[in-house]
Amino acid sequence: MCVSRCVLFLGCGVILVGHAWAGDWPRFSGPDGNGISSETGLPVTWTTTENVRWCAELPGEGTSSPVVVGDQVFLTCAFDGGQRRKVLCLDRRDGKQLWSREITDDDPEVTSAVTGHAAHTPVVANGLVVAMFGNAGVVCYDLAGQQQWHHGLGDFESELGLASSPIVHKGLVYLVCDHDGKWYKTFDSYLIALDLKTGETRWKTDRRGLFRSWSTPILAPAGNDRTELIVSAQDELRGYDPQNGALLWQAQGTAGWVTPSPVFGDGVIFATSGKDGPTIAVRPGGRGDVTGTHVDWKQDRGGPYVCSPLLYHGRLYVPDEHGFVRCIDAGTGEVLYRQRLGGKFTASPVAAEVRVYVTNEAGTTFVLEDGPHFRLLAENDFDEECLASPAISQGAMFYRTGRQLYCIGLAR
User: Fold this and answer.
1) Which residues share a beta bridge with 130?
2) Cβ atoms 378, 9 nearer than 8 A
3) DSSP letters for 260-283
4) From the CB of residue 41, how many other CB atoms can be counted at a distance below 10 Å?
């Protein structure tokens, strides 16, 4: 059982006028892939007895983030060094397990202690939940736990494991299947789209070369009713046609270690990379090499190793593994502040109610007031390792620690 403590700083009292449940959090970083929720009535502080609705023990290891649809919470776990992987379904109201389903693989991919064998966050769409498990493939269940299909992806060669999560758009499941590919003993990196209903391949695009990525892709509107599939990877940010997988454009500027997912807002894609790598702002809609035409600004250093940036009200929040958070003017690239919070950040930040929630690996969540100047509202400490990003749904926040899932919310 974890021990939590909370420090509430003076002058940050909260008056609740009403509640507005914004609904589901069906994929990594929420419904729009940007980590932002429009819900109100979320807590600023919590302890083991205050604002904790329930805490559920998890049966296996994993760093994937929880997703929430209706009254169901989905997440993944791994056992026996990755030879067994599970999709878990819990009741959102009390944390009780509704069902679990397991797939096996006798030759799991190599991974790191931080990544593990259950790092991909599942996605829920059209009454189906899809989970990716590296060498064990990608599997799809309905919301009652009945398997619909299973698709093998091949044997990955990866020094540090795999982490890119699936996303869904117009009936297609998109998967970034990048790996180290140093010797091409198995296959080159590729991008693939599967039919959500059947698991059949709709298209597959080769990503030959060292385009390794642990980043989750996003979709970005590019004008004229055009949508682009954006993949951030080694050395390049790339835009693809989501209907056929054709490469549309590429922009130079990322580093060799790309785990953060890009974010989109105000007509611009923001991509960060580490370790201590560049941050770039790129406009979609180009053709070919757009480095000289569509890159609005670039910072050469300060990018995070793992956690994704958060774009909120025209400001880009970028935590890093050194315990700092940077707040950047998204329009100009100007650093508004750089503040040390402490610890090491792996989980991606989320935002709601003009607040930014940033959680370090030690399980401390720093609650910041959104704005151009640094203001710390509270610290909430789980005293447990926390690598997964939180989910926000129906007036509650869901935090995964090493072996537990917490539902944090104000008293009903």
Assistant:
1) 123, 140
2) yes
3) SPPEEETTEEEEE-BTT--EEEE-
4) 17
Q: Show the CA angle centred on residue 169, arms to residues 168 and 170, nearest 5°.
A: 130
Q: Would you call 284 exposed, middle or buried from its count of C-beta atoms within 10 A (0-12, 13-18, 19+)?
A: buried
**Cα-Cα-Cα-Cα dihedral sign, residues 277, 283, 289, 295:** negative
Contact partners, residue 384, CB within 8 Å, separation at least 6: 2, 363, 401, 402, 403, 404
Enter the tokens of residue 228. 């682009």
Handedness of CA 367, 398, 403, 1 (dihedral sign): positive
**DSSP 3-state of 135:** helix
CB 81 within 8 A of CB 72: no
Among 400, 411, 393, 395, which Cα is nearest to 359's?
Answer: 400
* All structural domains of the chain: 222-305 (2.40.10.480)
Distance from C-alpha of 2 to C-alpha of 7, rounded to nearest angstrom = 17
In sequence order, what DSSP letters do the residues of 171-224 get, joined into one string? TEEEEEE----SS-SS---EEEEEETTT--EEEEEE-TTT----PPPEEEE-ST
Q: What is the per-residue DSSP string for 16-56?
A: ---------B-STTTTTTSSB-------S---SSSSEEEEE
Determine whether 100 is exposed, middle or buried from the number of CB atoms within 10 Å of its CB (0-12, 13-18, 19+).
middle
Of residues 334, 387, 330, 389, the one with CA closest to residue 356: 389
**3-class secondary structure, 229:** strand
Residue 325's SS3 state is: strand
pLDDT band of 47, cuts 50, 70, 90: confident
| 268-297 pLDDT, tens digit each | 999 999 888 999 999 999 999 999 999 999
Nearest CA to 314 out of 329, 296, 299, 298 is that of: 329
Who contacts 163 (Cβ-Cβ below 8 Å, separation ≥6)?
A: 63, 115, 119, 120, 214, 259
pLDDT digits (tens, 9 = 90+) for 175-230: 999 988 655 577 889 999 999 999 999 999 999 876 678 999 999 999 888 999 99
